[in-house]
Model the fold of this input.
Amino acid sequence: MAEVLVLLAPGAGAPSTSPWMQAWARRLRALGPVVALDYPYALAGRRRPDRLPALIAAHREALRAARQAHPGLPVVLAGKSMGSRVGCHVALEEPGVRALVCLGYPLVGATGKVRDEVLLALRTPALFVQGTRDRLCPLDRLAAVRARMTAPSALHVVEAGDHSLLATKAWLRAAGRTQDDVDAEVLRAVAAFIAAPGA
Done:
């Protein structure tokens, strides 16, 4: 597979320096250069995320800088939770994004409302990587949204996985697997999706 530029965005609760983000940045380097971003609120040491327009603006600026540093490479917007949702908004405004990789998409908001508007507006292929224990993205609700999406989409399910794609120790023991095995499967699914004709 030809190299791609991966712009990796964090979730609301942890910056790009968190162990989870650092680990996924290392794994995704198998696909090409990885640039991780942080949103203004995290850079300022605040816990409360910025409003969506500010998040989108910061994400677009990070994309511009990443493209400038790695000219000519196809761009993949990858993100954890909130970062994946913001990436979807950026893909609506930025031409030439090859694919979206949503690691634990936050489909259901704090009020229980399904936040599907940006997904229904997408034209960029999107891969959802979701744990079966992720309360922010029940798989039946995601299936209903995907059935209505115009953009090509795919789903990789992490059995017994939580919002951070971590499987339970009990499931791993019963399956004779390790978390490294699970993460390697996710990476293979991401690589296959990006290499597919629809992405």
